[in-house]
């Protein structure tokens, strides 16, 4: 691919993702730097949902399960995600939410290590992951413990009491990246299993589930995978564990023969056993269509471009906006695909930014967060965002009483 | 409302639901008697989903959570369902699947009765409910037991070892109705809690959760509530239990302050604590729109009409189709809103029926199942279904090798 500047000079690969950008239905005059929270709509998802509703549900009714392939969506979308996270075909399923999937694999990991009673995590983990572990362990009774340490202390906190190391690879606030391969190896050396949350990894950075030796993984499909608000999550079970993986949460879609209506549960082979209830077809169809955007996309190129955009943004903001302090790792290799800046007036400044068409988000107490999804974000967007931010900071536009507190969802 | 026969005579209330029927987008030339499995599309759901995708997700992006009220959908749809199942406002939430919700309330019930170790259910329960209990109990260790008895033996099997009586009110095969009030009272007398699955009740028969004293309930929204394939389920927590209800499965949307991102879980007040992950917005919007169909509808009238249609169908089939044996209770008061007939060639006969535009379904080994949803099914449909069935049975049209075995979802 190549592009041409206003001076007429060829600039090779200036906007290497212009083809994928055309697949997104982005609002005009908006720079959307919050795809790490909710990915935008694709034309494909809009069309597919309309078709599934009107033609499939509307005309095929119950027949849609077979005639329209609804029943295959968890595996079909799972295989598309597997290709993005370094997992073999058939090892990823799409179902439920990230929290529910984490519960399943964590409960399974604890059953696989009955002599170990500790789940080890870090204080940078997304809180729902900690809540899942807390309440699961509370139900298991005495002796079980959730140990939460600082992210940089995780490696040293792995000991022989640990049943499961439960980490989110990319920190939702700072984008700090854990070393999945190294920590998984250390967990295994201590006899523990490694459970990874890829919420801010999938579609953002290359992930090598198979190569890292990760035992289980879960992740979100509504961020960089653009599945839609509250889209179903994914779950990975390392193939060699599949037959001994028994979640405390099981249901008919994870049964070996769901339509035999047997009274006894017999888990389906492989990751299919992680399914529980009836798949949410409308949501799965939106996700499946959105995932098609990734066909032919090289994640190494996505990563290179993400770093280029992020580095540009950091340099521009640091040059233009005194008072903002980089909260993300400066080393691009240790950083995911978003960048956070600390700013005392961050909440109000972010509201001012959003009002001016540059959409990032805010994380208490003082983080302004900007996500860079190369599939639809280009260098122009990054420069415009930095310019608008500069104006807000320099002119103290955040100092406006309209920018009051309100709710927000990642 | 009144109607006029071909003889010109006025027949009061012949099609009392013609107004609601117009709200559904049913395929032409089809008699859809499978709304007990997957309710049909409403015009409202189609329009709402299109709007949520294109305008809300597409244009509001992350802002949709507040600007478009996405964050309120679990409670909003929950309140609509509460009105249909005799539950007070604020006591029902929409989230996850029926199986996952059952897991939550069952795990909570077991924590509330630590001295009791038995979950009592019946062999007519939908298998996923039994799987949920089996795998939950397996994870809790020794001493826990799932006791499964015949439906008619449930009352006598309640003893002081029972922690939770876990039943589906309406049998998915035969439509046999359990006496929710009586069995709940017996459970309470033995010190147990009563957990009800309303999958085939909600929108089909009047339910009085508050009056019956039921402790917890779950249910499906894609059957008589027409929420769409795999639509999110609902969960009810008796308000007096809310503050002591602790599910083993918890997540950030059930936290008292999800956006504070605290490291410790503190359950939200009331049924809100049953939420776990991020709500599936597209699916919730479809359901919420479909539920609007029920505004102004009297469930007692729905029930009366359902009985009228079912009785007509039974009489017609028994008169026309020798060889088919009623598998549902003959007493309409003991039967939900579907009717099942036993027929040796039931699978093939049902395929022949579907091919001729009359859609019911089949449950192994020999049940032909027909659901009567008065909101969109009228007397003409019932008569046509019986006529087509008669032809298939009398002319042995089921005896065609094309009608081979295939998968099927309720």
Question: Could you provide a short overview of the structure?
Answer:
The first copy, chain A, has 410 residues and is of the alpha/beta class.
β-sheet strand percentage of chain A: 5-15%
Give the CATH class of the largest domain in chain A: Alpha Beta
CATH architecture of the largest domain in chain A: 3-Layer(aba) Sandwich
Helix content of chain A: 25-40%
Looking at the structure, the CATH topology of the largest domain in chain A is Aspartate Aminotransferase, domain 2
User: What is the CATH superfamily of the largest domain in chain A?
Assistant: Type I PLP-dependent aspartate aminotransferase-like (Major domain)
Report low-confidence residues of chain A grouped into runs of 5 or more: 1-12, 406-410
Which two chains form the greatest contact, residue counts included? A-B, 93 and 92 residues
Arithmetic mean of pLDDT of chain A? 94
* Structural domain count of chain A: 2
Assembly annotation: homodimer
- The radius of gyration computed from the alpha-carbon positions of chain A, rounded to a whole number of angstroms, is 22 Å
Shape of chain A: globular
């Amino acid at each position: 691919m190549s592009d041409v500047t206003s001076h007429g000079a060829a600039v090779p690969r200036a906007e290497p993702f212009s083809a994928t950008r055309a697949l997104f239905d982005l609002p005009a005059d908006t720079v959307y730097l919050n795809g790490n929270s909710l990915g935008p709509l694709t034309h494909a998802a809009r069309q597919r949902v309309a078709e599934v509703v009107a033609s499939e549900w509307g005309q095929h009714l119950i027949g849609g399960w077979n005639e329209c392939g609804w029943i295959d969506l968890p595996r079909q979308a799972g295989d598309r995600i597997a290709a993005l996270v370094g997992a073999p075909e058939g090892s990823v399923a799409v179902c439920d939410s990230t929290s529910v999937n984490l519960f399943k694999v964590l409960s399974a990991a604890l059953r696989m290590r009955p002599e170990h009673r500790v789940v080890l995590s870090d204080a940078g983990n997304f809180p729902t992951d900690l809540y899942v572990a807390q309440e699961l362990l509370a139900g298991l009774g005495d002796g079980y413990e959730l140990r939460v340490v600082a992210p940089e202390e995780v490696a040293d906190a792995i000991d022989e009491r640990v049943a499961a190391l439960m980490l989110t690879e990319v920190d939702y606030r700072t984008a700090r990246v854990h070393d999945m391969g190294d920590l998984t190896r250390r967990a295994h050396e201590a006899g523990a299993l490694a459970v990874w949350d890829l919420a801010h990894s999938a579609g953002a950075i290359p992930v090598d589930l198979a190569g890292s030796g990760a035992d289980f993984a879960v992740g979100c499909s509504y961020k960089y995978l653009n599945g839609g608000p509250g889209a179903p999550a994914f779950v990975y079970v390392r193939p060699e564990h599949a037959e001994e993986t028994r979640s405390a949460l099981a249901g008919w879609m994870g049964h070996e023969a769901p339509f035999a209506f047997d009274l006894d549960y017999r888990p389906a082979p492989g990751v299919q056993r992680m399914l529980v209830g009836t798949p949410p077809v409308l949501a799965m169809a939106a996700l499946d269509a959105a995932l098609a955007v990734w066909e032919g996309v090289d994640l190494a190129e996505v990563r290179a471009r993400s770093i280029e955009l992020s580095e540009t943004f950091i340099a521009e903001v640091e040059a233009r906006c005194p008072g903002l302090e980089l909260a993300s790792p400066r080393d691009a290799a240790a950083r995911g695909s978003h960048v956070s800046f600390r700013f005392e007036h961050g909440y109000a400044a972010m509201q001012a930014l959003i009002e001016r068409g540059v959409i990032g988000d805010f994380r208490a107490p003082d983080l302004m967060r900007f996500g860079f999804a190369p599939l639809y974000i280009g260098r122009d967007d990054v420069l415009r965002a930095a310019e608008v931010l500069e104006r807000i900071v320099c002119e103290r536009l955040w100092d406006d009483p309209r920018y009051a507190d309100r709710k927000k969802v990642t």
